[in-house]
Amino acid sequence: MSTLSFLFYCFMITFTPGPTNIVILTTTQNYGTKKALQYTYGSTVAFFLILLLSAIFNTILVNIMPNIIFTMKIIGTIYMLYLAYQILNASKSHNNSNYGNFTSGFVMQFLNPKVVLFCLTVLPSFVLKEDSTFND
Q1: Block means of pLDDT (10 residues each) for the chain, length 136 residues?
Q2: Can you spell out the DSSP letters for 25-78?
Q3: d(C-alpha 119, C-alpha 91), whole Å
């Protein structure tokens, strides 16, 4: 594994704007830092949970069905195209009092394709390839 490519991948995923980053920025601008921190805490907990579940299920899938990665790439591509279509046809959202709280940040991470695809790709691409138990 190239440590440099792994670190670059993690850096790009972390610091490029995605839905969560944009919502945090908007929440800070419209409702203040305190609301944005609540949202950030929720999204952080959800990210950890998604990464943990991804590690468990990727390990199981690689052992049971080694060729599943190609299928997962196809499903991920279709999902991203679906989300792009939904964004293209979406109307302006309305202000909501539930905006920017822990729960909305938590739920947003499960709907965030950037996080889901990161968690589904980083383990098979970088971690599982280097684990000797999968190379036997």
Answers
A1: 77 78 84 88 90 83 75 80 74 58 82 78 67 49
A2: HHHHHHH-HHHHHHHHHHHHHHHHHHHHHHHHHHHHHHHH-TTHHHHHHHHHHH
A3: 29
